[in-house]
């Protein structure tokens, strides 16, 4: 016990003396939490639309003005031919082309049927996909309006299905509400896991571990002595993040804080085990850094922070499930936004405990006092 | 029983190529100051790492203070002091904190064994609140020695303690070792400096992972094969080339501003024959005299016969 206290004392003293490390641990996550949710916004706005109008009728005018007033589109130009409009896409001045054929109005009135052509620049997949979808909805609405006008009131009323939306747990579809908890998890991950990994490798690199190994200190004492400080720092960082989320973004956890923190406690043990594992395989800080960077990339992209895990192909889902970060992001969102209870997140708890056991067990097996 | 015993220790870091240690056996008596003398890469550090339980040998066995380095590694760790070749204390902790840290790790206090380190610690005490990373080379050395001694070890392992330290500090350091020896601590020290060898009670000459010879420095010098001569002349460089071409020479090398040489067969005619041969080559003012060899000469003689 005395040894452990001594190790902790030494570790904290070193951390607070490291003028380079302190801002990384405490300032950097705050800055990121203040910047990232504001920048990472998936709402697609300002889609540039090039209109090829070969008809020049009242209907086409009505249609285009309806599109323009929707707020999603910015009409960049009117053309009479397709080629110059396509040229606009090539020059990245336009994202979508809407082509209205000649005799559009005549066809619509005579044959009560007319088609338009939509071409989207699919280089930016999200913009193309969402833009076309928005455009479809608007055209559908327009279509309905015309039907209403022409058909007898009775029939029209019978034929429409009215859809009303209600966004549960996030009624205003506030993007911050969705992103802030996820980013919070990522920051705790970076600080808790990787700073710890680098710290242990540093002892190897400088050679202090040799001197430590010749003392009667036990393997578990050294490991616990390294883990506790970063576990505490992880907790502190998460708390700071939660306060920022509350006072800057107005994200107030609906669920139990106790539940949230108990999950965090287990998550941090799993994460520190992962950091320890990296450190046992690296000889110097540079190696550890690159390995950590590789995994941070996977965590960022696979954890469901930006892309929903449900949309991934099945093999990718497996990878996502095997990432401790995924489950924690899931749980933080559930507890903070939905107010989920323990019974709702039992599975994630089990996953995280499994990660903690496997990662730490592997790391300890691989950590050899006698090389 | 001897304090440190190595029996047929071999170690390879790589599968192919020459091993780091090849069938090394020696023993160190209790209270002895034992020196491992050899150039860089001879295998000195590997021996230390095996004896301090940081490394497992491939073959052979070793005991330190009666404990087996493999089975009883935990006991060994409590009773040896180790100072690695590279400064391995916490650079961001102060002198005092480092000392306190290692004392507590060994379950003791600085005060309990202060008498042992007093002489050394007093020299660095004025800087006790300075971080170890900001100390000069000599002061780092003293701090490392203090930390290795703080639990009053039975055996002290010092891996090249004087490498990269100035001449004055080196001298001081060896004086400190003599005092520690007087306290009854067994000391195993390695050095690449041959002049330090004579300060040890017994030495082992080591080269390419093999022990060339083990004895007291005086005995090793006594056992020098044949006679050694020193040659002086105004132009030593050309002299070396020409002397080596003389038929009767077995060894010739530069040592300081002189040439040291020995002949293949002893005989009165050789020194005079060499002088006249050199004069015929155009060298003037060449003088030759017989000298007593030092450890370095012995080492060179040993390695050349070994090859």
Automatic annotation (TrEMBL), chain A:
Chief location: membrane
Stored Pfam families: ABC2_membrane_3 (PF12698)
Superkingdom of this protein's organism: Bacteria
InterPro entries: ABC-2_transporter_component (IPR051449), ABC2_TM (IPR013525), ABC2_TM_bact-type (IPR047817)
PROSITE patterns per record: ABC_TM2
Localization in the cell: Cell membrane
Regions annotated as coiled coil: none
Residue stretches making up the ABC transmembrane type-2 domain: 132-370
Topology relative to the membrane: Multi-pass membrane protein
MF-aspect GO terms: ABC-type transporter activity
Entry GO terms, CC: plasma membrane
TM regions (residue ranges): 21-40, 175-201, 228-252, 258-278, 290-309, 349-367
Keywords noted in UniProt: Cell membrane, Membrane, Transmembrane, Transmembrane helix, Transport
UniProt family annotation: Belongs to the ABC-2 integral membrane protein family.
Name listed for the protein in its UniProt record: ABC-2 type transport system permease protein
Organism: Chitinophaga ginsengisoli
TrEMBL record, chain B:
Listed InterPro entries: AAA+_ATPase (IPR003593), ABC_transporter-like_ATP-bd (IPR003439), ABC_transporter-like_CS (IPR017871), ABC_transporter_ATP-binding (IPR050763), P-loop_NTPase (IPR027417)
Keywords attached to this entry: ATP-binding, Nodulation, Nucleotide-binding, Transport
GO molecular function, one term: ATP binding
Keyword Transferase appears in the UniProt entry: no
Domain named ABC transporter: residues: 4-233
Top-level lineage group: Bacteria
CDD domains, A to Z: ABC_DR_subfamily_A (cd03230)
Family as reported in the entry's similarity comment: Belongs to the ABC transporter superfamily.
Protein's name according to its UniProt entry: ABC-type multidrug transport system ATPase subunit
